[in-house]
Structures are given as C-alpha cells and as structure tokens.
Specification:
Blueprint (H helix, E strand, L loop, with lengths): L10 H8 L5 E5 L9 H9 L6 E5 L2 H9 L6 E5 L4 H11 L5 E5 L6 H8 L4 E6 L2 H10 L2 E4 L8
Parallel strand pairs: 1-2, 2-3, 3-4, 4-5, 5-6
C-alpha cells in the first residue's frame, strides 16, 4: 500500500467486500498492555458477518482472551521455532483448546507439528513462496498461506 492512495480497509469494509464469498482467516496482532478491548471489538464486528471466519495470533494474551470470551469461531496459534523451549510454549497454548496451528514453513518439520497433526489438529504453513516450499507444505501440513507465486500453476 506504500506510496499509493490505497488504505487498509476497516474490518467492516473488508467484510462488506468479501460478503461471505470466501472464508476469511484473521491474524490478530496486539501490543501487550496497550490493546484492552481489541479482541472484544473484533468479535463485536464479526457479529453481523455471515461468512466463514477463523482467527489466529502469535500473541498468547490475545488467544487467551479469545478463549475467555468464548469465541464462536475457530481459534489458532500462529507459531515458529525449532527449540524445545518454544515447543513447550506452543504446547502450553494448545492446552487452551485451540483449533489449529499456523506454523512457519522454514521451521518444519519438527516434533511439535508432527505430534499435533498426529493428534488431529489441522496445520497451516506460512509463508510458502516457491514450488519447492509448496511440496514441503503438502507433506507436512493441511493447508498453506502463500504469496508471490500461483500454487495451481506450480
């Protein structure tokens, strides 16, 4: 959007444009101790939207708040890392009852992703940018976030 007259649309404008034609995956990004009411405002905006939605975040406090507010949409952990201490953090978050994980393709395969998939949790990879990465994603995940190439043409 930089150096253009375009602007990031509000959620309402986004929802009006999409109008339920395709599912939406919202990634929430917050600032700890500076985003009071953010999750509630997002859920309120979603009340009048008729399309399919899932919500994910790296931010543990936002995921915790989504669960506390009894979010009616699938909630997922956005994550990365290859060290056991990161896996322990991810596993702690999964105990909240999250519905899916979106994991950095550059950090796969790994024990955490293998175990949650074996347990039936869907996994999305991010960000797939090449046909080789797509092939890797297909072997290790259920879906992918991609940019910079047409996966159907690859």
């Amino acid at each position: 959007i930089g150096r253009t007259k375009d602007a990031i649309p509000t959620l309402k404008k986004l929802f009006d444009r999409v109008a339920g034609q395709v599912p939406i995956v919202l990634e929430l990004k917050g600032r700890k101790d500076e985003d009071d009411g953010f999750v509630g405002a997002v859920l309120e905006e979603l009340e009048d939207y008729d399309g399919k939605v899932a919500i994910m975040s790296f931010d543990h406090w936002l995921l915790e708040e989504l669960i506390e507010l009894d979010c009616p949409y699938p909630v997922g952990l956005t994550a990365e890392g290859v060290r056991e201490e990161k896996f322990a953090e991810h596993e702690a978050m999964m105990k909240l009852g999250l519905d899916f994980v979106s994991y950095g393709i550059l950090h796969m395969p790994n024990r955490f992703v293998t175990e949650i998939r074996q347990g039936g949790t869907p996994v999305i990879t991010w960000t797939v940018r090449t046909p080789d990465m797509r092939e890797r994603s297909e072997q290790q995940a259920d879906q992918m976030t991609f940019e910079g190439f047409d996966p159907d043409a690859a």
